[in-house]
Design goal:
547 residues; mainly alpha; two-stranded antiparallel sheet; 2 strands; 71% helix; elongated; disordered C terminus
Length: 547
Amino acid sequence: MSVEKKLTSSLASSRSVQQHLFFILHNHCQTIRELTQVHAQIAIHGFTTKKFILVKLLALYSVFNNVDAGQKLFDQVVNPSCTLWNQIIKGYSVAGNPKISVELFKKMGHSDAHPDGYTYTYVTNGCTRGGLLAEDEQVHGKILKSGISSNVYVCTSLVDLYVKTGGVEKGTKLFDEMPEKNVVTWNTLLLGFFRQGDTDGARGVFENMPYRSIVSWTTMIAGCAQNGRSKEALALFHQMQLENIEFDQVTLVSVLSACADLGDLNLGRWIHSYVIEYLTRRKQQPLLISLQNSLIHMYASCGEIESAFQIFMDMRQRTTVSWTSMITGFAKHGYGDKALSIFQWMRSAEGCNSKPDEITFLGVLCACSHSGYVQMGRQYFHNMIDTWGIHPRIEHFGCMVDLYSRAGLLDEAHELVKSMPMKPNDVIWGALLGGCRIHRNIELASDAANWLIKEVDPDCGVGYFVLLSNVYASCRRWHEVVDLRQKIVNANTSKPPGRSWIQIRESIYEFVAGDRSHENASQIYKILDGMTMESRYFGDSNQFIEP
């Protein structure tokens, strides 16, 4: 129903019309068109000087991302109040124009209105979004002069700004000076340490928190998972459970990321059951797409590719991450044809608004490489650039070099390396070197080796040097093998030991090559020796073990 029709049923008195217009403004403006209609009626009835109506109008114009219309309305107001100034400053900040917010704040200083805590919070938030550290330091100075520096919300906004733009040291200094802190302040500093990559510092903040919200726990778990401390992340989750702290779907997204990293399939399955039995059936919560994507990633990382695919098929709505996770999962498990079929489905599915991004194409090129589809991989690589406008990163070039090298097109792989717009790294040369080992190309292997020796830190590249020595050995170039091995010894480096892990019941056991620290090491090596002898027997007899 249009606004005009709604107004026909309103009472005739000015006060009733005013109240009715505000009711429509507050409850029925779902589009910018409806808002414009209400604004017109407000102007016709002469209510454009009513403060509570103006504030609501400005707020809605910001919601509908039409700050220009809000600015015109604001300019018509004589001597606007602090609340009106706050709305227009907030509008520009939210709309991504923080510099205009700062300029309006400066103009406000020359008016009769005095900034309050909301004013400083909106300006500071705008400076944070725009990375305007210099401007916010000026605002900070005015906050100190105004005597409002004890406002916990204003100071929390400043802490947020400093940890995001000026470094966690400045944020910590201001945090320590605050006479009052709330849980949001603590969470802001906690996140700041993680942004700087200081997991230990974040842990210190977390341990000292007088109260921890679900956001605090989730931030800590996510931060550990993202900074290579997945075991710690899962320990925190178990601690949450022991303390009977209810977790939400966002928490589970981070926990599943840690499960994927560690291969903890048991916990991943438990979370999946919890999601189905508790969240879906009992609480009837709509599931976050990010949670479903995390389940796909967890199952694919733990080798349960069919379970990942079942979740993918059950999803009512899919994002680019959903499609990419499934494509990458199939590709890494050697199902190149299935990965490419998912990609074709993504491109042709009716009503699918998801577009492939650079990560999607990494999965596609990986599938082509593992399946040996050279022509198809070449076509997708060029389509990525010409059709989708995605500039290849070094990882995409790495996939193509790997594709060509596996297929024996070593000259083409080498030409691609030389034509790359960025400097090739050790992974690129390593892929080329791997092809040289497969196809025994000594000359090209030597070129790759020369680059690796000159450019790569010996501690990082020793694995490639060992690979090169294997290339020489496969062609019986024993002199080069000895020279290269001697260089490794002289550099006092060693190849990092291989690692693997298995899960038995609720525990994950990690094994390092040559490690005898496990309490059952003697039994483990006894079985391993038996398996080694058996595999050598079958290898020497040219027999195959049927799966």
